[in-house]
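Lab notebook page, bench 4
Experiment: in silico fold of construct C2
Operator: M.H.
Input chain length: 318 residues
Purpose: comparison with the prior construct
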Amino acid sequence: MKKMLLAVSVFCIQFTQAQTVVTFDDLTLAPNTYWDGSDSTLGFTSGGVYFENSYDFQYDYWSGGFIYSSSTDVTTAGYTNDFSAYTGTGGNSSQNYAVNYGGGIDFGTEKMLGSIQVTNTTYAALSMLNGDAFGKVFGSPNDAQGNPDGTNGEDWFRLLIIGKDAQNNTTDTVIFYLADYRFADSLQDYIVNTWETVDLTPLGEVQFLEFELQSTDEGSFGINTPAYFALDNISYGTASLNKLSSVNQEVYPNPSTDKITVKSPKGQINVYSLSGELILTQTTDGLQEINLNTVQSGTYIIETSTSEGIARTRISKI
């Protein structure tokens, strides 16, 4: 199954080694239950992060923001099952996870984000797979009422993760496709049914995360695809108090299969994983070759610390 992740790349970023992970397992839930905000608390905190919630007491339903859940229901279609992840578990096979229906996250102060795990809800996934009264069957050229909708069946459902700093300015946006039916080979079309890790480091230093769901299946009131997704395991660290200096650092080739060369002032080179783990360290006289033969494929941070300041560069090991 092929999955597409689009992100605006940034090459010089700030990075933090100490990471906190929001797992939602610090919230008390019995197995196969959920909290929906009906206790009037208007939100909850997990892993030091606040998640807003709205509940409509007139009509007695969760009306927006976040809930947390341990539901394992992957078969019940429709809005009465808007609290279940399509995986049947939380990320990394844990019990608890969260579900989003609009609303955002407040980290309290600016943080450097690492990653987030996301997946479809059962409600959204079964709507796309089988259709319902409002949503079409993905891959069909027709809408839910059986009329041609102009898509030729090339449907998609995607999540926009929008970072905002303490002044509420947008820092960047990461886009993740929760479903994609645009492939020439229809066997590659997919609806995400596993927990997928999304890199959030392109967002830089953020205090707030906002989420937007978009779909090719649209009507006069917005998208017809149920605008829900599930999330878990948000990693973040304290943002650096010192902005990066103007130290020049060149890293090449990028991407690399085995060795990279780092051109910078004299100092110390550290290689970090995106989770903040120190992979290796060595000194440099200004032009240093780094052997990545023993490092797994992925994205890493090359940090050079010198008497003039610090420079950091994202690189890909393939």
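Observations: The longest helix spans residues 122-130. The first strand starts at residue 5 and ends at 7.
Next step: discuss at group meeting.
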